[in-house]
Task: structure prediction
Amino acid sequence: MEHIMRMPAEMLREQARKGEVVRLNYETQTYDAEGSKPLHKGAWVYLPYGYSSSMTYNVLYLLHGGGVSEDWWFKMFPDTVTILDNMMADGVCDPCIIVAPTYYRGDARDRDADYVTENFCHELRRDLIPAVEKTYSTFAKGDVSEENLVKTRGHRAFAGLSLGSMTTYRAAFYNNFDLFSWYGPFSGCCGPFGKHDVEVERIVSTLENGRKNGLGIDFMYCCNGDGDIAYAEHKDIMEKVLARTDILKFDENYDFFVIPGGVHDMKAWQLDMYHVLKVFFKK
Result:
């Protein structure tokens, strides 16, 4: 599989065929006691150039890292939008919808990394995906019943950076494997204090249980710079996973993209996004 080590210059040029970034507001009661007021949240949604409700689109849910917000990908780094516009205009990837949410809720639990990375799975399943796929034209076609979301999992991907990479494993992969078949963890799996063997067991069990239930994986595209603080743990965990299961196979449904000299920064993460979108939804 071809790995490009720098963002191609043509991906950063001004593009006439521009997509649109719109705000999606939704409610979640996932974190509160029954009967209490719902929490109002929002996500940014990239709609590709020429978006039409008469067409159906794949969806990538794309998460930020620790200490920031849903503004990260599209508002704090608007060149992300330029990259996406050029990728889709040049046919590098097919037009798709990209959703940038947040796992934060604005309370004390936000400071607990283990809590937010694990428990976002409930909001993702119960609130965010239904809100997105009722509102926009996806392969779910507005039917957000659990049965239909499982049926259309091949048209849904999840990726994230840093703490969002941990969330890719914990919220999307371990806990919602039946809703996604494409994964892009950028920079790490369990963080500096995580237990590698625990994560290896969870990854292998998720894959094996999925196979037993007739749920395959289209692609897991891990990404990390070799100068990134998360590189060593991510590499160690995934090497142990590959030794334990025959489900993940390089160049078939798995890759580990390493950026030489790449560090824990947005330049690397935008390049990761570029690489996964070259692969996602191709089958």
Q: What stands out?
A: The radius of gyration is 18 Å. The chain has one domain: 9-279. Strands lie at 20-28, 39-47, 59-63, 97-100, 156-161, 182-186, 219-225, 254-259. Residues 9-279 form a domain with the Rossmann fold fold (CATH 3.40.50.1820).
